User: Fold these one by one.
Assistant:
Number 1:
Amino acid sequence: MRSRSDVLELAILGLLQDTPMHGYELRKRLNVMLGSFRALSYGSLYPALRSMADRGLITVAGSSEPLPHALSGKRSRNVYELTADGKEHLAEALTSSGPTAWDDEGFDVRFALFAQTDVETRLRILEGRRTRLAERLDQLRTSAARTRERVDEYTLELHRHGLEQVEREVAWLDGLIDRERDSGRTSKRRHPASRRTDGSESS
Amino acid sequence: MRSRSDVLELAILGLLQDTPMHGYELRKRLNVMLGSFRALSYGSLYPALRSMADRGLITVAGSSEPLPHALSGKRSRNVYELTADGKEHLAEALTSSGPTAWDDEGFDVRFALFAQTDVETRLRILEGRRTRLAERLDQLRTSAARTRERVDEYTLELHRHGLEQVEREVAWLDGLIDRERDSGRTSKRRHPASRRTDGSESS
DNA sequence: GTTAGCATGTAAGGAGTTACATGATTTT
DNA sequence: AAAATCATGTAACTCCTTACATGCTAAC
């Protein structure tokens, strides 16, 4: 029922599927993943890990019990690892179109995890995000038309620029969708994550 | 001491300088100003207004006393208006380079209030924001160089795109800075807010 | 006269940050 | 052996949203 913090959990699960890790390391990768500004604090991370361990999504190495709330005594690297339940949860979360699936953060995390998904999932996520942005665009254009007369030049310029940024975002998504459709046609359900890194798309 | 919520207060003060208003109306304009997604709730707005009234930045019409915590009995439109203190506070806040001055929200609000400022202030804000974004760019490029090998193609693409968006933001700011410098040269300290609304810049 | 929208507020709680408190390991 | 950095955690606090509760005013 924690609808917003799903994003953090998803990111954690995604990173742990790649490889088991302890919290400190996890945090660094999380910060890269979530956009590098906005450093996630330990005050968020550790309680989240605790909660996930309590729910059986991950295990803590050293004490393989379901973490009975009392630390064994020593205090050192706790290595976290996905359980079968955790993997299932991750797969569901990646596929589902929950309430936080298409907003900025939710999308970024899902996108960063694309290497672990199949073409169908990727396309669903990209298209869902595109739809969401198109709605936003509509909204912005409508509200612009309504308020055209009543606002000063600067406010107008701010809105114009915001609109442009969203338009570019949509164009970017369109490019990605095309690429995925191509790769989907060539090799159904395969991971095409090993393309050239320099990504030379001539428009 | 409320360092983050300065932004909300600044926005309120800015709108009230334009014209006195009651809360409901204020909220609608605030939502346009702050980007239209992310609707500010009454649960944020009214307590903020109360606090600002308590501190003497604004007055409430109908009961011109400093709001002695007990409403008079009736319940209807409370019209808020800036006090001299409030105007001073606003001027300071617009000029100052506080901790929240250059982040996304802080900048947007200050920009939306440009019509009420002079060229010097506008230039300081635009340049401050540009510096902040340039730092971000540096950071992103550095971290990209450090992690180039260790991340998959999708994460890379996400970073590339993020970088591009910030670069565009900087280019936008450069254009605005040029325009302000021109208008500053032509007419020192005058408000050039009465340009053509259709903004035909053929570029 | 009743629905819809205007208008104001409060209480509870979610999500995260800061600041604190502690201990282990590596580097100098 | 001191300093730096790795590593884990908690408590208090902030800011905001949701959901609720209330009453006024215009339209039909």
Number 2:
Amino acid sequence: MPTPLPQDLSTTQRRDAILEQLQRQGVVRVRDLAKHFAVSTVTVRADLAAMEEEGLLRREHGGAVRTLPGRTLLTSLSGMEERQGLNSTQKRAIAAAAARHVRPRDIILIDAGTTAVEMVPFLTEVDDITIVTNALNVAAAVGAHLRCRLILLGGTYSRTSSSTLGPQALHALSEFNISRLFLGTQAFDAASGLTDTTTEIAQMKRAMIDASREVYLLADSSKWEKAGFIKVAPLGKVHHVLSDSALPACAIRAIKEAGPRCEIV
Amino acid sequence: MPTPLPQDLSTTQRRDAILEQLQRQGVVRVRDLAKHFAVSTVTVRADLAAMEEEGLLRREHGGAVRTLPGRTLLTSLSGMEERQGLNSTQKRAIAAAAARHVRPRDIILIDAGTTAVEMVPFLTEVDDITIVTNALNVAAAVGAHLRCRLILLGGTYSRTSSSTLGPQALHALSEFNISRLFLGTQAFDAASGLTDTTTEIAQMKRAMIDASREVYLLADSSKWEKAGFIKVAPLGKVHHVLSDSALPACAIRAIKEAGPRCEIV
DNA sequence: TGCGCAAAACGAAAGCAAATGAAAGTATGC
DNA sequence: GCATACTTTCATTTGCTTTCGTTTTGCGCA
């Protein structure tokens, strides 16, 4: 029974309780919530509408679902492991393989994204590295696991990507001589190369690629042949693609033809 | 029964009792409190309004709720929680007073430090503000509480201050036209002005002061006549000093002579 | 597949009681 | 006297419900 308190609650308490339930179960239904809190469905819908407005959830017919980027920076940092759920073992394996490419005295750039951040705990062994990033979750992970030098690119904070973007970020990036870039992506295929969701993100990733001597793409097999909205770069710009064994053979062939080495973990 | 004392109490006693009950239960209701203390609902509402001003609780329709313990993950990374403890009620009151100076469309710069970060939850009311900061805990708090534009200054991450410093941070700062700066300090007195612990921090704060049209110093009374190591700026560079009522009268006199207005909360 | 229909969910509007803020009034104390 | 603490009064707002007409969904049937 997930029904400990059917009693009379204030509005915010009810909304907090809805959020909590949503966080636990992933979905909530208007009908159930109305019954559970002994209020009308109209009230529940108003609650959901208000919280959708704040970006805390996404409504759909019959109820609401959890928004993927997590509730806030707070949970996006703390609830990271639980959240990224699917493919998380593959992602960690890919990240571990990527970390093995890092050499002492490297200056590495780590992109925002759930895969690349997983590299951080695997970097404890490498001496005297400098990590540059525009992602706050990467910064938090570095702060928690490593003692190395950490440089943050500034810029306008984007909640959806939990990273900084825009002209300030681009300019800051231009100052560094990066030895290796570890890049994530929303989608990639042979025809369009890497694609992503917004122009700002795409612009940032392009600048990252241009600023780096060696580019590693960390992309689990689920990203293959998914079509993103905005083109980031052709596959030829990438030097290494790291993915998992579920990546089809034809994909591997297509990638190698386009240029990058392909490393399957 | 949570009703040990239905007897006649002074205002402050009643308010303390309300706070205590709030701390225990998480929520209190105007109707119940009025009954419990045998006063009118108007009086209770006045109590709650006064305590909300000081940041001790958050009002809502029908009553009030506890303000979140504000545990924003990033603070747990930087060992900030322990430092937070001391004088935290004063700090929040100072922060609440500082937040009242913010106007719609302001571009405000918030310094790293335990006091200034407390401002964030009080900024929900102000429309269309832009927050610039070099402090990761401020960024986390903004992400958790506000929907406004947030700009991060990049730079080399300093673990002790949990903020970014160095040439990149200084350069990023030079791009902005800041309307108000909310600054913390390690120590201040009449002779040396503001003082701090490292040259990097001092340099950053000096640049912040120079970049801002109006400078607010948030310093609880415990900072007065503590001697910091590095000079940051004379008191004359600051326009407003916000502190608590434990600041001695001679300090207030000295501050006013040096230039700044003095606001005691 | 595609179509049609009933149940469910939805948004907008109207109504109601509780809660609220502002203003004016009443004790009590220095 | 003035100040403080509290109260009553009253118009307004808030949170919630009911009602009603519309849209969406699931399911049976071809």
